[in-house]
From TrEMBL:
Belongs to the amidinotransferase family. PANTHER family: GLYCINE AMIDINOTRANSFERASE, MITOCHONDRIAL. It comes from Marivita hallyeonensis. Keywords: Transferase. Transmembrane segments: none annotated. It comes from the Bacteria. The keyword Transferase applies. InterPro entries: AmidinoTrfase. This is Glycine amidinotransferase.
Length: 373
């Protein structure tokens, strides 16, 4: 059945087929969460985030929402249906029998929480305590899709307990240093342990029959194995990027643009033994252009490599952050039509153009892009 703007259908098998329906996040009431093991490991030692928590200033929330609303309008003018989450009160604490944290986070990056594979949208386990209830922001949409699309499968991965046993103590030091961090990531020693399955949806890239999953801070091997068992008709492959001292989410490191072409962060190159899987199936992996900025925006968790956190609208069209002039130039040389989208002032709320969206429907079916096994 072809897509119709008047009928809800959930279907998306990859990152590049023509986008018809998407969720774009909101910055409402976003908080800098209190310290917790998963968060502390992510924040660089010299970051202005250390030691701060609480509701973000209203003027920054308003600015981020202005940019997200403008992005939404841009997509809608291109005929793409856009839905938005329902923010909850993120000032409320999260308390379970196993942990307590004094506030939550936000709902700007739906890509972190929601993984669309075919006709299913899966809610990730998440690995941050402050993000335990973030899925609730998307439940009104999930309920609507379930009522309107009889083929839609709404699934939720098992909620982890997130006790202290889920995190390595040695990552709690404020003086680890980049050299030690790089050594640990090369050894695949991350802040998360193998106590229970953990994964964020933003660690998963969809290549039709293949799901490429980053093993790092927010997704452990048990999480990858859980995905493998949950999607038995897919090939679920783990990757890692030793050059990243803060390996959280794959979409500022490894960005597929179309069948056969991937951008790779030149500071976080895919190891040769993992690269072979792509090479023998005629995929070209090229270094992404350098970011246009030397530092992230104020109070931002993410690196400058959000420059390559782009949203592909179809095989020839891509949204790139408007200030990332080098990335736009590279996209044009690769034969893409570039749509500049101003979003940098919203980075601090959860990421870039890929992060702040979650697919609902893309054209195309489940293809095998890796026939040579």
């Amino acid at each position: 059945m072809n897509w119709s703007p008047d009928k809800t259908q959930v279907k998306s098998w990859n990152e590049w087929d023509t986008l018809r329906h998407v969720i774009v996040g909101k910055a409402d009431d976003c908080h800098i969460p209190p310290e917790e093991p998963a968060l502390d490991a992510k924040v660089p030692e010299d970051s202005d985030m250390r030691g701060q928590w609480g509701r973000r200033p209203q003027e920054t929330i308003d600015r981020a929402n202005e940019l997200l609303d403008t992005f939404t309008d841009t997509l809608r003018k291109r005929g793409i249906r856009v839905d938005r989450p329902t923010p909850t009160d993120f000032s409320k604490p999260v308390t379970t029998p196993d942990f307590h944290t004094d506030s939550q986070f936000g709902c700007m990056p739906p890509r972190d929480v929601l993984l669309t594979v075919g006709h299913e949208i899966l809610e990730a386990t998440m690995s941050y305590r402050c993000r335990w209830f973030e899925y609730l922001c998307y439940r009104p949409l999930m309920q609507q899709y379930w009522e309107e699309d009889p083929n839609f499968r709404h699934e939720a991965a098992p909620k982890p307990r997130l006790t202290d046993a889920d995190y390595h103590d040695d990552y709690l030091s404020e003086a680890i240093g980049i050299e030690k961090r790089l050594q640990w990531t090369a050894e695949k020693h991350f802040v998360t342990t193998e106590e229970e399955p953990l994964f964020d949806a933003a660690d998963v890239l969809r290549f039709g029959k293949d799901l490429i999953v980053q093993h790092g801070f927010t997704t452990n091997l048990k999480g990858i194995e859980w995905l493998r068992r949950h999607f038995p008709d897919h090939r679920v492959r783990a990757v890692n990027f030793p050059g990243d001292p803060y390996p959280i989410h794959i979409d500022a490191t490894f960005t597929p643009l179309r069948p056969g072409l991937i951008l790779n962060n030149p500071n976080r190159r895919l190891p040769d033994e993992q690269r072979d899987y792509f090479k023998k199936n005629d995929w070209e992996i090229v270094d992404a252009a350098q970011p246009a900025h030397n530092t992230p925006p104020p109070l931002c968790y993410s690196s400058t490599w959000l420059s390559m956190n782009v949203l592909v609208l179809d095989l020839k069209t891509v949204c790139v952050e408007a200030s990332e002039v080098y990335q736009m130039e590279q996209m044009e040389k690769l034969g893409m039509e570039v749509i500049p989208v101003e979003l940098r002032d919203a980075y601090a709320f959860g990421g870039g153009l890929h992060c702040c969206t979650a697919d609902v429907y893309r054209d195309g079916d489940c293809e095998d892009y890796f026939p040579n096994q």
